[in-house]
Amino acid sequence: MTDAPLPPGSMIGILGGGQLGRMLSVAASRLGLKSHVFNDTPDAPAFQVAARTSVGDYDDLDAVARFAEQVDVVTCEFENVPAATLEAAGAAAPVFPPVKSFEIAQDRLNEKDFVSGLGIPVAPYANIETLADLKESILRIPPPALLKTRRFGYDGKGQTRILTLCSAESAWEAIGEAPAILEGMVTFEREISVVTVRGRDGTVRFYDVVENVHKDGILDTSQVPANVTTALGAEARAIAGKIAGALGHVGVVTVEMFQTGGAEPALAVNEIAPRVHNSGHWTLDACLISQFENHIRAICGWELGDVSRHSDAVMTNLIGSDVEDWRKYAAEPGTAVHLYGKAEARPGRKMGHINRVSPKT
Length: 361
Ligand code: AMP
Description:
Layout: E1 11-15, H1 19-30, E2 34-39, E3 52-55, H2 61-69, E4 73-76, H3 83-90, H4 99-105, H5 108-117, E5 125-128, H6 131-140, E6 145-149, E7 159-162, H7 168-174, E8 180-184, E9 190-198, E10 204-206, E11 210-215, E12 218-224, H8 230-247, E13 251-260, E14 266-273, H9 283-286, H10 291-299, E15 311-319, H11 326-330, E16 335-339, E17 350-359
Helix pairs in contact: 1-10, 2-3
């Protein structure tokens, strides 16, 4: 591959057709780029806005290869892409972010080992392969604690709380006796994230630190500016930059962190998402260049766009039936409505979001 940027008119391959794929596709189109979205079901939100679509199983490597042969670069909207899928795509087209970012972020144990190996604090954790491991580790990491499956967990799924020493067996059953980590519960002041973009040439830019509130394990609101000191914001960016660099990441990577420590604030990394992220949706309306466009710019080898924030913003997710109030939000001054084109508003399903924007304070 040459280092020349992909020119307007190029075709971006996106594995995954959810709302993130949809917003990536729209961002690509603003730059005169086209997108070809691959999804395992035909009702994908991103199919409604993409130039080309393919339906296939992510494990159908022939289908993945055919898709990749038709595009100039491949990217992903979710982290749980099987390694063989990335390899099959990579044989036909460059794939960004790199495989390493997925290997680390797909597996909570790899992720914790990687982050702590960089000297960055994380919650206390232990590798759990058997019930015996759990019973032993729970003495070192006492309740309250969380048992999280190593793979395929998101939005609070694949995890259970352990509140007493004697609930080890029920917790092990609750997560399906799958390989897991035991994680000490962190008492945090707030949750923050740093949406970071790294270009093919190693340039790194950070969006402003975001403050996130979760409800039932799902992101509810993201607010900028976050209520953190300048020093803590700088530390959060330094952590995110260290992670992005060590991964050799290309594209957007989001690092979620806990602020602990009361009067003497400190940070611990919770999770790395090697992709555009729900806590960066405010960038659509409070920045000149959104996280989606910057991801597309990065994977295409373009100059990264301006990440500065021109407004304050609060992003609120529209989950399940919340979306029924779309007319109320559409009429609200200073509010941008983003709907994902999903037909059925099931409980817990992300149907859209709103960005309430106000002059920068
Ligand atoms: P996760 O899927 O690991 O991102 O967890 C989803 C949410 O659960 C986080 O954003 C936190 O609100 C909460 N959570 C996860 N891990 C911990 C922890 N070790 N201590 C306290 N809260 C946690």
